[in-house]
Every structure is written in C-alpha cells, then in structure tokens.
From TrEMBL, chains A, B:
The keyword Oxidoreductase applies. Keywords: Oxidoreductase. Residues 20-332 form the Enoyl reductase (ER) domain. CDD domains: PGDH (cd05288). Pfam families: ADH_N_2 (PF16884), ADH_zinc_N (PF00107). This is NADP-dependent oxidoreductase. One of its GO terms (molecular function) is oxidoreductase activity, acting on the CH-CH group of donors, NAD or NADP as acceptor. InterPro entries: ADH-like_C, ADH_N_2, ER, GroES-like_sf, MDR_fam, NAD(P)-bd_dom_sf. It comes from Acidiphilium acidophilum (Thiobacillus acidophilus). The keyword rRNA-binding does not apply.
Length: 334, 334
C-alpha cells in the first residue's frame, strides 16, 4: 500500500469564463499515508456541482477559494483504505470533501460514515447528499411553502430542482418547473409529477408563467438567475418568497452580473428574496436525510443520477453543467 | 357654506420622467356638501411623498393608480367644516387621504381624528404619521436590528431616513446615514446623533462605507435604490437584512430600472432583501405612534418639517423630492 498512485486535478490558474482543461494540471503523485486522526480513502464517486465554478474564483465568498496548485475541491464518496482515526476502519464508506482525485488522505472528522446498505452509493451524493439537503432546507426552511400555494423552480431537471419540485408536490403545492428542452420537460411532468413544465429554450417564459401559474407565484426557487429571475419577479404574489440558491446563468460571466431589474416587485408585494447555503443546516442534515430516505423508500421521491466514467474527463464533464447537457445529478465515477 | 370653492389638482395625463405642471389641471370647483357618513374638511397641510410618483403610473401596484381626471391622491391634515358622520364634529382635526385640494369631502371612516393638543399639526404628517410609521415598522419589524449591529440608511436626511437612524440609535446600534450635501450630513450627525454620514454627492461610497462600517453592514434600509443599493450589498454581513422601502433614484426613470448587480451577495451571505409597505402595519399604528410620541417628548427623537406655503406650488414643490432639494418632511401648507 505504500506506493499507491493518486491521480488528481489541481487548479493551475483562475478560469476566465467557461472552465477549460488548461485551467487544471492533471498529474499523478504517490498517495500520502494517513497520520494520526486521518484516513486514506479510495474515491469512487465525485459530485460535480455548479458551486465549484465559484470556488475557482478569487475573492471573499462563503467558503475560501481553492488555492492555485491545490487539488480541486469536490464532494465525493469512497471507501477507506487505511485509517489512523478512531471509529473509522478499512472498508468503511465515507462522504466528504475528498476532492477531484483518486485517493484522498483527509482528517476523519471532516468525513461522514454512511451505510451503503441503505441506498445505492450515488444516492449519497444526490438525494441523500448535498443536493438533497439543499432542496429540502432551501424549500422548506427558506421558501416556507404552504399547501395550495404555487411553487416555481428553475433548473427543474437538475439535481436540486428536481427534488425541490417533488418535495413541493409532497407538501400539497402547485408546482411548475422551468427546464431546457422537451425531454427534460416531459420528464419532470410525466415521471416526477410536476403540474407543468416550461421549456426556456423554446417557449416564452412570461406568457407560459401566466398560463401555468394562474394564481401567481408564491415561492420561486432560483437556481439560474438572469432573465428567468426577472420574469418570475414580475409575477409573484403578495408576501412571496424567493429562494436564491444559485445563479448558474451568471457563473461563467466575463461581464458584470445582470441584477434583477424587477426587484421593486419585492416592494410592491412585500416579498422577500433570501440567499441559502446548505452548510448552514449541517446540524439538521440527519433530520432531512431521514425524511428524504423515507420518501425515497415510499416511491414518493425519485432521484436521477447522471454518472460519467473516468476521472480524467473532469474538466469536460464539469462543463456539461453549464451548457445544460447533464440530466440529473452529475457525478464522476473514478 | 353652500358655495365654498375647492381649489384642486387633478391628474391630466400620465407623467413621463419628472413630473411637470402640465401633467395636472389646477382648477376650482364648488366644494361638494357631505352626504351621510361623510365629512367636509378644510385641508391645512398636504404631505408630499416619493410614493406619489408611483401612484401616477398606470399598472398593477400595491394601490390602484390615480385615474386620469381624478384629484391627485395625497395624505393630508385638516379641520372639519361640516359633518354628516357620527363621532365627527365641526372643528375636529383629522388626517387621511384628503388629496391635493383645499376642501375634501370624504367618508369619515377613511379618516383618523387626531388630538392637536398632543403635538404641532405638521408632526401628524411626519414623525407621528406615515413617515414615522414607515421608519418604525420598516426598521423594527422588517430590519430587526440587534443592539451593537450596524445600520446604514440612505435618504438619511429625508422624512423616513432621519427617523430610521434615530430609532437605530435608540436601539443601541451603530448608525451611518447616506445623504446629499455637507449641510444634510452635518445635520444627521450633529443634530440627530448618527455615528457617521456619507455625502453621496462628493464622496466615494464604497470606500466611505468601509471606513464608517468597519464591522460590515447588518441592516441596510434602502430609500433610494440604484448604485447605492449595489454598493451596500457589496458590504453586507452574514444574515444581513435589506429593507426595500423605496427607490427614489428610479422613480422618474424613462429607461428600465437598474437591478442590483450585487444581488448574489444575498446568496453568499445568506441575507434577505424584503419589501415594506407601511399600510400593512395599520393595525399597529397606535402602538408605533405611542412609542414615537414618547421618544419625541423625551427629546430622543427629532422631527424636521420642510413646509412650503401655497397649494398652487404643488407640482414644483413635489419635484424637490427628486432633486434632493427638500430637507426634512416635505409638505404643503394650503
């Protein structure tokens, strides 16, 4: 075990606009043996998330940027090869910020042991992982939907959006999803049970919002920002809640972010727009995961993973998030 | 009393950009005698507010637009000349939406009797009226400041802003005001007790915010919108609250409203931006006015009125709100 190879992507420069392969160094180093309190993990699945684009930028954010020369940060799941940490044994399966690499040596306290008998491993990076917790707490704790209200969610076929809509249906709401392309729109209505879908690639969003939300919008769960946020702001109800979870349309901007010109709709409607970061709910993950797992078991919640094989495909696979090519929770199988 | 003359401003056309005299018809009609449930009021003071600009525009808002040909809506104070309503007598002083006219005939149920022995009449249109209630509930119920936090307020020498800052000081906060010109800046610091002032006409706001808010911004009370909102968004703290009370910089736009390009600071900081309309707190006005009146009596709260004589000056006097010429709560003395 002493000379295992660790294939890894390190951030070589700060990307401008869309991420390119040259923004990273793909190299192989000897894996580092664990020290006291650490574990060495064979990484199996790496979660690819829109937020990773922000972590590559310099500047103050909710988490420190990935440093130049560092292994790219990513949530991942793997099996312990060696442990120097109490309570963690070889063969245990863990999740944590293992990074875009094949072997991670990391403090055990920063990882969470999971029980792979409970669900297929990829689910622990989707419905039972960060996207699941983001959807659960973002919708329920920030959006505060009430039965009978209308929820609109963008990025509706994505990892978070698909769960937001399904949780909304479980809570008795009228749910409309905005997604790109006929296949995704069909999927969220026919397979996930959304009440309606709007195809932002081929339909006029304002007119379709009026059709599909005849009673206006009470909760808008925003994953995309840009013009769609503005279109939704124009049709919110009194005391509406807008959950700002992401702004994928703006992450690769090389020009200034487009602010929501219709923000004064918040004033007219006494509505609120509130940002949400899943890490704030860490002390409630167990509660969220328990309820999500029971909905999965009961068949009330479906989770779709989009799994790409090959660590070496990382930069190109990540790029699929921003072109709308992925369908379901995107992850790499190492 | 049968042929009293009512001088009045009626909305003649929908203004484009800044309000012009030609947007109104100034005419004299016989005053209408009150019918059952109505009172006829000699209007003494008319409140001039930024919100009036919005009421002149067509389209859905929190209140119906003033119709073409109708007397311009305005809050005002006057003395009853004739009453056909129980509980209201000749000589009683009332406030209500009496309009921009010298004599109003109006349903008594839409007016509030006030006790002119408690405070000078103009105060019932400022600290004890809508601006006072806006400041009180906007800051305390929406902004939710905690002692030791930093509050920034724009339009800080205006009717609402000056009260917001003083209430913030009473609540134990660090308070910074943004106002236009050295005289207003001196006033809010030296006379009202703000901790610091930023002159948006001569100073660089981002640098001055860093200097005057070394611990960041916890509550931003926005009366102006535009670039100042963006500058404040860039310096908010975790879980900051942004109260959207107005956007006077945008009310006369003939181009699209400038959306806050830094709105993703809400995401990074898990902050919220929430609109506020004073009418929503109508059932708590008595509570707010009681506390404001006691602070006024104790000398902890100062109110400044900017009273212009002459109903006929209405369009020009209203325009002073948008050029920053007024200083204190602007009103007309009929």
């Amino acid at each position: 075990m002493d000379h295992q190879e660790n294939r890894q992507f390190r951030l070589a420069r700060r990307p401008v606009g869309h991420v390119k392969r040259e923004d990273f160094e793909f190299r192989t180093d000897p894996a580092r043996a664990p020290e006291a309190g650490e574990i060495m993990v064979a990484v199996e699945y790496i979660s690819l998330d829109p937020a990773m684009r922000g972590w590559m930028n310099e500047g103050k954010s909710y988490i420190r940027p990935v440093g130049l020369g560092e292994v790219m940060r990513a949530g991942a799941l793997g099996t312990i090869l060696q442990s120097k940490a109490e309570g963690f044994s070889t063969g245990d399966v863990v999740t944590g910020a293992l990074g875009v690499q094949s072997i991670a040596t990391i403090a055990a306290k920063d990882c969470t042991k999971i029980d792979p008998a409970l669900a297929p491993k990829p689910l622990f990076l989707s419905a039972l992982g960060m996207p699941g917790m983001t959807a659960y707490f973002g919708l329920l704790a920030v959006g505060e939907p009430k039965p009978g209200e209308t929820i609109v969610v963008s990025g509706a076929a994505g990892a978070v959006g698909a769960l937001v809509g399904q949780i909304g249906k479980i809570k008795g709401c009228h749910v409309v999803g905005i997604a790109g392309g006929a296949e995704k729109c069909r999927y969220i209505v026919d397979e996930l049970g959304f009440d309606a879908a709007i195809d932002y690639k081929s339909e006029k969003i304002p007119a379709r919002l009026r059709e599909t939300c005849p009673e206006g919008i009470d909760v808008y769960f925003d994953n995309v920002g840009g013009q769609i946020l503005d279109d939704c702001l124009a049709q919110i109800n009194l005391r509406a809640r807008i959950v700002i979870c992401g702004a994928i349309s703006q992450y690769n901007n090389t020009t200034p972010v487009k602010g929501p010109a219709n923000y004064l709709s918040l004033l007219v409607n006494r509505a609120r727009m509130q940002g949400m970061i899943v890490f704030d709910y860490a002390d409630r993950y167990a509660e969220g995961a328990k309820e999500m797992a029971s909905w999965l078991r009961e068949g009330r919640l479906k989770s779709r993973e989009d799994i790409v094989e090959g660590l070496e495909t990382f930069p190109d696979t990540l790029g699929r998030l921003f072109t709308g090519e992925n369908f379901g929770k995107l992850m790499l199988k190492v």
